[in-house]
Amino acid sequence: MPPPPRVGDVTGLVSAFLPATRSEALARLEAFLPLAADYGAARNRVVAGHENVSRLSPATRTRVLLEQEILAAVRARHAPASIEKFEQEVWWRLYWKGWLEQRPGIWTRYREALSPLRWSERARAVAAGESGIAILDHFTRELITTGYLHNHARMWWASWWIHGEGLPWQQGAHFFLQHLRDGDAASNTLSWRWVAGLHTRGKAYLVRRSNLERYVAPELLAEHPAGLEKLESIAIRDLPWEEPPAPRALEPSDPQQGPRTGIWIHDEDLSVERSPLSDLAPVALLATVPSGLWECEAYSPGKCAFLKGALADGAARASEHFGLPCPTRDTPALSEALVAWALEERLDTVVTLSPFTGPLADEIPKIGAAFADRGVRLNLVRRPEEMVVMNRATGGFFGFWEKVRERG
Ligand SMILES: Cc1cc2nc3c(=O)[nH]c(=O)nc-3n(C[C@H](O)[C@H](O)[C@H](O)COP(=O)(O)OP(=O)(O)OC[C@H]3O[C@@H](n4cnc5c(N)ncnc54)[C@H](O)[C@@H]3O)c2cc1C
Question: What φ, ψ does residue 58 adopt, rounded to 5°?
């Protein structure tokens, strides 16, 4: 894991506004709606403030806002043809989620490769915004200070890291996850793999000077011109190809109550009141801040604060919905805190929305075993309509898109 990167001069950076709570996410969606029809033409440009894109990804990452809500809102406002590009991008996230969820071995392989890697001097310098390519260094500072990067900036940055510097893609991906407010195991890992040429055989993404000159706002590029010539001699590095595992179909799982059921709320899904859990009659609620886990992952202070804010908001909404207090427990040891809560509340069943493949889901076997030792059943629930969509992510995106545009 890298040390917290040193932040250089951030003068002039416009901090992107990223929604943490549901009301912020709804306001962001409302502000973006009139622009959705122009999105297809405007989205590729990297401009200060990022007004041409939605910046909704942090809200879908914590699920304070669901993709279906975003799609319903744009469809209610615009003719289908004018919003096709935006719809496609929203579906991309579910595609990546489904693709990885059906092949969790890809995540395990990535984590196993990441774990023994040590940070070289060069990797530290690039992650601290000292690559020598001023515009990429500007993006590094933007990522560290705001927790957001435009999609194009992510592609260029990852491509330079992998193909320009020859650094391990796994470290770059983890660096992103430490800072991005929307940091997501599926979108992040699979996008990095795609840039590296490991997702689609024979296809890698190469950053080009001409691409930056075309899509970065001229005034921004003029402020950071140094080192652009380095992008002229870059070539693709061929990384060893590994066949992905065959997809395994996902099963929906219904909530099952016991006489004393508790609902556990976590930052992977903060829309409990708009989920199959909403009709349950729990006796207790608990939201967890897994500080120990975040520390192991070396999440940045800004990211931790963002997630805590989202959790507090999700807990407040659940509390209101179920008419019960929903304390938030900040814990270095997640499974112990959950077991302590289950014992305090004399629970026989704990129900939660199943975290998708990623750091929190990696904790589930331990949590399940700790509950089982105390005679408590852990019930992981998935939204049935999402399982249908995710099961369509068996091949490439456009095959998936053809299926979902027809049937959802
Ligand atoms: C190397 C790399 C790493 C990335 N890491 C992440 C990550 O950790 N989490 C994450 O959510 N996205 C990730 N992306 C995808 C994409 O960059 C972001 O989803 C997007 O930039 C978010 O900004 P926005 O909400 O303004 O997007 P908009 O352009 O407004 O798009 C609307 C929504 O569509 C979805 N979306 C858009 N583009 C993509 C895409 N290429 N892949 C998946 N979903 C997309 C997002 O949920 C987004 O909120 C990564 C891309 C790359 C190239």
Answer: -65, -30
